[in-house]
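Translate sequence into structure tokens.
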Amino acid sequence: MSRPKEVVFSPEAEAQIVALYEYIAANASPTIAESYTSAIVERCERLGATPLAGTARDDIRRGLRMTLFRRRVAIAYSALPKVVTVLGIFYGGQDYESLLRED
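Result follows.
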């Protein structure tokens, strides 16, 4: 069995998780926001142990993989030999394809 890979978050993914926290905190409560966004971060960190578990989306960007969290959050990431990079965290029906597509 191979060792888990390091998981890093892109600046965009970090900003998206903060924005989601702020949205939930304003519309529900800071406690709910903390619990939900912490669970998303934990899910992302587990990708280091199972980097190929997500669906390959080379049609959007070479090396891109996608996984869902609680059917409402799409997590976009790339898995290289030593590191998994979380590229984006998209809530609800956000158009992640146009944001992630390589020109």
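Note: The chain has a mean pLDDT of 93.
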